[in-house]
Write a structure and sequence with these properties.
It holds the Pfam family ABC_tran. It comes from Halomonas halmophila. This is ABC transporter ATP-binding protein. One of its GO terms (molecular function) is ATP binding. The chain has 250 residues and is of the alpha/beta class. It has one domain: Rossmann fold (3-Layer(aba) Sandwich), CATH 3.40.50. 38% of the residues lie in helices and 28% in strands. It has nine helices and twelve strands. It has a six-stranded mixed beta sheet with strand order 6-9-10-3-11-12, sandwiched between helices. Strands 2-1-4-5 form a four-stranded antiparallel beta sheet, covered by helices on one side. Strand 11 and strand 12 form a beta hairpin. Helix 5 runs parallel beside helix 6. It starts with a strand and ends with a helix. The relative contact order is 0.18. The model has no long low-confidence stretch (mean pLDDT 90).
Length: 250
């Protein structure tokens, strides 16, 4: 589904990713971990097309398409979604309008008609209920005045409505209490399927108690230094990252 080959990325003249390789197949959940500054968030931002990142060499393909040649909206229409660590506020734009516009843009890209208003309301109310959010959130401006946990739930709500093929979630667990983390994790797990992939960027193993990954990768100085199954995350929780850093430098 996603293939990243020998990716080199610079930000303001500093090289952040230094030859990163990653493959995510359909139905797989991958967790990306590592110390601060290793490049975890950079990878998902580059895949999504966020400004400020320069790809100096390497390639990214998604379902056989060259991602780096696609505009941001084309990536979204193709099924790529980035859930932000710090979701932005959009004053004056109601949640419900954003969700409907985004969903219809996806449908138009697939050659489908706009969703009928009753069908849309049924869909969105179902997802709001699943995320244990009040329907009043739909009439509020996107993330404006939301708490940290509410913003994260709202990110997952968008994901559940849009049903991306590859969801990239950048530290979606930061700032969440236990109850909110369970709700967010349930939302993410509901997306799992044979035709979808998920990339989780996280510092903490606790999220992976709720969303059990197929593969865990440790990023050190812009490269994946170690990969394993969910047990690797538990080992990192008990031992920290120093041993992986030392092994990668040896």
């Amino acid at each position: 589904m996603l293939e990243v080959k020998d990716l080199h990325v610079t930000v303001e003249g500093s090289e952040i990713l230094k030859g990163l390789n990653l493959t995510i197949g359909p139905g797989e959940v991958h967790a990306l971990m590592g110390p601060n500054g290793a490049g975890k968030s950079t990878l998902s931002a580059v895949i999504a097309g966020k400004d400020g990142y320069e790809v100096t060499s390497g390639s990214i393909t998604f379902e056989g398409r060259d991602v780096l040649e696609m505009e941001i909206e084309e990536r979204a229409q193709a099924g790529l979604l980035l859930g932000f660590q710090y979701p932005v506020e959009i004053p004056g734009v109601k949640n419900i309008y954003l969700l409907k516009a985004a969903l219809n843009a996806q449908r138009a890209a697939r050659g489908e008609e706009e969703i009928a208003a009753p069908d849309f309301m049924k869909l969105v109310k179902e997802k709001v209920s699943f995320m244990k959010m009040d329907t009043s959130f739909l009439q509020r401006a996107v993330n404006e005045g939301f708490s940290g946990g509410e913003k994260k739930r709202n990110e997952i709500l968008q994901m559940l409505v849009l049903q991306p093929k590859l969801a990239m979630l950048d530290e979606i667990d930061s700032g969440l209490d236990i109850d909110a983390m369970r709700v967010v994790a349930d939302g993410v797990n509901s997306l799992r399927g044979d035709d979808k992939g998920i990339l989780l960027v996280t510092h903490y193993q606790r999220l992976l108690d709720y969303i059990v990954p197929d593969r865990v990768h440790v990023l050190v100085e812009g490269r994946i230094a170690k990969s394993g199954d969910a047990d690797l995350a538990r080992e990192l929780e008990s031992r920290g990252y120093d041993w992986v850093v030392e092994d990668s430098a040896a």
